[in-house]
Design goal:
428 residues, alpha/beta, ten-stranded mixed sheet, binds guanosine-5'-diphosphate, binds 6-O-phosphoryl inosine monophosphate, binds magnesium ion
């Protein structure tokens, strides 16, 4: 058996959580492979809404195993809060969740370093989620990190203190004087949360997943963030600190490249971004505001306003290529249901008038402008539709146009936030 991978093709918040939940019944296990509580994955069903941050989105179906893989960074305090809330709402999390002993831990001082580093950047701020993601991955790569498995060793507290003292020196170098009283209180909570995590099954998730595959079981890998936030291929330096692309599933779970099956690439029918950084198709006018209002484009984690714009096919083609996407999933087309026309950016034009379909090194809109095509809107409320046979002709044309531009089939269309508002296309 192979693993299938589902990942975001834009700047995150494409609707990954919803679709993982919808697809989970097809699988025996679901696994997160990178990122941490910077993610906010929203699921809606039976009139209830859940936002998951570190826990995979496959927990609400029928007892599938959900795995937090080695590529994830875990904040013990936030994890405990999330897990306890789910247990209280009736999810038997303990029986289905497995956590890799190789996950790196987000320390309280990582969050302080995230804030201090943003402050030091002043005008060049990344606009991070403030969850300590960058400093934790920095410690991982510089070989200073602490992993969940380390908490089981006798000298863990000493190693923790050494890491914390190193962080305090770094904070001071950034001109920050941490509030030691507040830090001590957070640390006590952090240690309690570590004790709580240890009540879950901590595993060698690379063995678990490969054994599942050997036994003929199927696994869905759930990406966080999106390709344009990938540390190698995104709009660097305005990115997150992990590999959000398909290759990240290999390193973040211990799955060999020849074990990757389908790659589901998920995108919105338009485009959004939170935080700073270039966004070529961003709209600053009434249309952008309309998309934000109709799409409720506010961050699931931070509540921040999401920047909105038209779909960018230059960036999407790039994302399809880097990830080897085999199937596309289009989300939130309902947000455009009332529009007279919709636009799609098919190329970029530089200052000399030259057009390119390649993503430039610097994505700043000072260097080029998007080239748009305008397509007729479908002007039909599609949110109650059950099958693609009901699609208005203009919408069917829009799908065909995107499939041609992206050279990949769109197999699922999402027409509302609820689990039920999902159309799986026939013969695709
Ligand atoms: P994720 O991070 O990729 O899981 O996406 P988020 O949960 O951060 O953001 C997606 C938002 O859009 C959530 O509020 C979802 O409930 C909502 N959503 C998902 N699919 C649809 C859809 O097809 N239509 C509409 N209107 N909302 C959707
Ligand atoms: P999901 O999984 C959207 C953005 C932040 C910031 C940059 C770096 O819900 O799609 P970080 O805290 O990771 O160091 O922030 O990345 N960002 C996201 N944007 N969705 C996310 O996750 C994001 N996770 C991080 O806004 O611009
Ligand atoms: Mg999100």
């Amino acid at each position: 058996m192979k693993v299938d991978v589902l990942l975001g093709l834009q700047w995150g918040d494409e609707g990954k959580g919803k679709v993982v939940d919808v697809l989970t019944p097809r699988y025996d296990a679901v696994a997160r492979f990178q990122g941490g509580p910077n993610a906010g994955h929203t699921l809606e069903f039976e009139g209830k809404k859940y936002v998951l941050r570190s826990i995979p989105s496959g927990i609400f179906q029928h007892g599938q195993i959900n795995i937090i893989g080695n590529g994830v960074v875990l904040d013990p305090i936030l994890f405990s809060e999330e897990a306890k809330a789910l247990e209280e709402s009736g999810v038997d999390l303990r029986s289905i969740l497995r956590i890799s002993r190789k996950v790196h831990l987000i320390l309280p001082t990582h969050r302080l370093l995230d804030a201090a580093s943003e402050k030091a950047k002043a005008g060049g701020k990344i606009g991070t989620t403030g969850k300590g993601i960058g400093p934790t991955y920095t410690d991982k790569v510089s070989r200073n990190g602490l992993r969940l498995g380390d908490t089981l060793t006798a000298d863990f507290e000493a190693r923790y203190e050494a890491a914390r003292n190193r962080h305090i020196a770094q904070l001071k170098a950034l001109g920050d004087e941490p509030d030691m009283e507040a830090l001590t209180a957070t640390e006590a909570k952090w240690m309690e949360s570590i004790a709580y995590i240890k009540t879950y099954e901590i595993v060698d998730s690379e063995y678990l997943i490969n054994d599942l595959l050997k036994d003929g079981k199927s696994v869905l890998c759930e990406g966080a963030q999106g390709t344009m936030l990938d540390v190698d291929f995104g709009s660097y330096p305005f990115v997150t600190s992990s590999n959000t692309v398909c290759a990240g599933a290999c390193s973040g779970l211990g799955v060999a490249p020849n074990k990757i099956g389908e790659v589901f690439g998920i995108f919105k029918a338009y485009c959004t971004r939170v935080g700073s950084g270039p966004f070529p198709t961003e709209l600053f006018d009434e249309t952008g505001k309309k998309i934000r209002d109709l799409g409720h484009e506010y961050g699931a984690v931070t509540g921040r306003e999401r920047r909105c714009g038209w779909i960018d096919l230059v960036a999407l083609r790039y994302a399809v290529m880097i990830n080897g996407v085999t199937q596309l999933i289009m989300m939130k087309s309902d947000v455009l249901d009332g529009f007279d026309s919709v636009k799609a950016c098919v190329a970029y034009r530089d200052k000399t008038g030259k057009e390119t379909r390649h993503l430039p090194f610097y994505l700043d809109d000072d260097n080029f402008e998007p080239v748009y095509v305008t397509l007729p809107g479908w002007k039909t409320d599609m949110t109650a539709m059950k099958s693609e046979d009901e699609f208005p002709a203009e919408f069917a044309d829009y799908i065909r146009f995107l499939e041609k531009e992206l050279e990949t089939p769109i197999t699922i269309v999402s027409i509302g936030p609820d689990r039920e508002q999902t159309i799986v296309r026939k013969n695709k």
